[in-house]
Each structure stands twice: as structure tokens, then as C-alpha cells.
């Protein structure tokens, strides 16, 4: 007898998501963009819960890009405040659901109050053993690669690394994502077909799934549909 979600197995170990469409969702309803971001935060809760239920090990969410700092000051301030509220409000649920929170990006660019709340949640959830939720904040794929090169150079200059040792695996150890496996599946909402400077190094062999759904409308069933589509792909990794 089959069990619920048997058709989702094997579960992708790591899913990455570009959460696009909050602003358009709000505009379609005659609402301020900030309301779209609030609705998007509810979707984050649904997706995190679903990933935990079906056994995803890692979930990386593109929460705030390095380019997002160019948005109007009022919107950026609202996003930072929403991030603080989200972290503070979701911590009890993360503890209940055994979620471990992590973050990647140039986190020092965040307001100090956001940094404090983020570090508090990371520390509080550090012993949890379920889903690892990775928030990409003030993150850019090109910036990550540049920071990785700088890290390599520091290691060479400090005498800790011979440049002859540099290869793909070694370079990966100097990226923000060095503690996590590369994504198996990348999901982007709102129908846009581009990476937008997200995980440029890590998605070399990742399967992409694009949906027209705007992020606030993305449901648990939409996530499962994406995983079912993932299972239709033949991942050759350069082979035959």
C-alpha cells in the first residue's frame, strides 16, 4: 500500500528558491509592495513546514539580494523590519519543527538590529537536527565568488595553502556555502527565467523549475509538483 508523498521520493536533498513576485502580487490587488512582502513571509512558513514534513535536508531561500539595496529606502527599511519580525516570530515554530537556521551573504551589511536577531536565532536553533533553512541575505553570486578568491589569496599569503592545490573542490571550501551540498533543484516563481545572481557557482548541475505562480500564491502542492517534475529529469552530470 502506497503512503502519502511516496511519489516524491527520493526527496531532493537540497532545494533552492528564488522567491519572486511579491511586488506584482501586491500591485494586482492595489496594495503597497510591503503587503506583498508580508504575504510572501506567510509562504515561507508554508514551504519550510512542507520541506520539513517530506524530509528535505537543506532549503536555501533568496531572501534579499545585494542588488536589493538599490530599491527605495522606505522599501528597504520595511524589508529589514519585516526580517526582524519574521525571525522573532518564527523562532518558536523553528524550535518546534526542529529547524536549524543558517545564513549566507555579506551579513555585515545588514542593520545591526537585524544582525543581532539573526545571530540569536542561529544560536538558538544550532542544535536542531531537522531541516536546515539557509537565508541568503545581502547575497550576490558574483560577490560570493570574489569573496572566495580573496579568501584563497589570504590562505596562500598566510602560508596555509599552496596555489598548486587549488581545484574545484578547494575553491568550494572558500565559498559561503562550504558547509552545504549543492542544490539538486532550483525553483523560481513568477515565470522569470534567469538566475538573478543567485548561487552562480553552486547550480552548475542543478535542475531548474520555473512556475508562473507569484511567490505569495505558491502552495505546498506547488512545491510537490516541482519535486515530481524534478523526478522526470535524467541527471547525467556531463555523462551519457
Automatic annotation (TrEMBL):
Signal peptide: none annotated. Keywords: Magnesium, Metal-binding, Transferase. One of its GO terms (molecular function) is transferase activity. InterPro entries: UPP_synth-like, UPP_synth-like_CS, UPP_synth-like_sf. Substrate binds at residues 21-25, 33, 37, 65-67, 69, 71, 188, 194-196. Mg(2+) binds at residues 20, 207. Binds 2 magnesium ions per subunit. Homodimer. This is Isoprenyl transferase. It comes from Prosthecobacter fluviatilis.
